[in-house]
Each structure stands twice: as structure tokens, then as C-alpha cells.
From TrEMBL:
Coiled coil: none
Gene3D superfamilies: dinb family like domain
Species this protein is from: Echria macrotheca
InterPro entries linked to this entry: DinB/YfiT-like (IPR034660), DUF1993 (IPR018531)
Matches recorded under Pfam families: DUF1993
UniProt protein name: DUF1993 domain-containing protein
Length: 183
């Protein structure tokens, strides 16, 4: 019989978000390097890029990957984190925003998350709808899917612009070990 480890909600969320932010940093670094070899400005070439006209641009996707970390951690811990203004216009500024999200993950009190996992909270969905769901259900039904959606869309936009990233570039950070400090 194998020994099964218990995975806490905080371990899942903090590890997943940390690794996702590492992936985001990596694909942006590849994009910058590619732009340099092509003689193009990555800020003006990539940040406004979209997969299709009615979809939001890369800039929005980057803001929402990081915003999602802040919003989800707030919902998980019951803490109010200051709103981040969406003013980034350069990839360099996005590295700073990604670092802010990493700092939130590093400083989160994981015991608060795990203690509240079954607590029922209001989960806004659009301007006129609010669901009452457990924090656990909020994470599995909204938090993680939305985080992955914006991360994957950012990757796909860069790929569509010719940035030489592949599946390995996306998944390798998820396989890399990450040390999450215990609190």
C-alpha cells in the first residue's frame, strides 16, 4: 500500500499560481529575445496583439493572470488587497506586476486559506449575479480555470505572433520543483 500525501487547498493554489507566474515570465523572456532577433519592438508588436478581433489583447491577458492571483488570494484569506491599476504599457512593467503577484503568494498565510476552505462566500459573476459557494468550489470552478485561461491565452497570442514557444515552454515550469514556505 502506498503512502498518500494530503494536498491542502493552499498548497494547490500557491504552487499552481507560482508555477504559472514562472511560465508567464519565461514566455515573455522568449518573446523579448525573439523580438530582438527580428528587429521589432515587443511592446508595440505583442502587447496589443489578439487572437481574433473580438478578443482582448495580450496586455489584458497579462493583467488578468496577475489580477487573478490577487483576487483569489483575497477571497481565500478574507483579506482586502489593494486594487492594482492596469497601467502597464511595456513588458518590463509587466515583469514588475508579475513580481508583485509573486510577493503576495510568498506572504500569504496558508493556514487562513486551509481554515476557510469550506466556508461559503459570495462569488460575484458579472454585474448582476452573485453565487453563494464554498471557497473550495470557488477555486475549482472559477479561480483555477480563469487563471489557466488567461495564462494559456497569453501564450497562444505570443505563439500566433511567431514567438518560438512550444508546449515544453508552457509546461516545464509546472514540472519544476518549487519550495513554498510554510507558515
Amino acid at each position: 500500500m502506498s503512502d498518500q500525501a494530503t494536498i491542502t487547498l493552499s498548497d494547490l493554489v500557491v504552487t499552481t499560481f507560482t508555477k504559472g507566474l514562472n511560465t508567464l515570465t519565461h514566455v515573455l523572456q522568449v518573446a523579448e529575445a525573439h523580438a530582438a532577433t527580428q528587429g521589432i519592438n515587443p511592446d508595440t508588436e505583442y502587447l496589443p496583439a489578439r487572437l481574433i478581433d473580438d478578443m482582448r489583447p495580450l496586455q489584458f491577458q497579462l493583467q488578468n493572470v496577475t489580477k487573478h492571483v490577487r483576487v483569489v488570494l483575497g477571497r481565500l484569506t478574507g483579506e482586502e488587497y489593494p486594487v492594482w491599476e492596469d497601467t502597464e504599457t511595456t513588458i518590463k512593467e509587466f515583469y514588475g506586476r508579475i513580481e508583485k503577484a509573486r510577493k503576495l503568494l510568498e506572504g500569504v498565510d496558508k493556514s487562513k486559506i486551509d481554515a476557510r476552505a469550506g466556508e461559503v462566500v459570495d462569488h460575484p459573476f458579472g454585474p448582476n449575479i452573485t453565487f453563494k459557494v464554498s471557497i473550495r468550489d470557488s477555486i475549482f470552478g472559477h479561480g483555477l480555470p480563469n487563471f489557466y485561461f488567461h495564462l494559456t491565452t497569453a501564450y497562444a497570442i505570443l505563439r500566433s505572433k511567431g514567438v518560438p514557444v512550444g508546449k515544453y515552454d508552457y509546461v516545464k515550469e509546472f514540472f519544476a520543483p518549487v519550495e513554498i514556505p510554510r507558515r
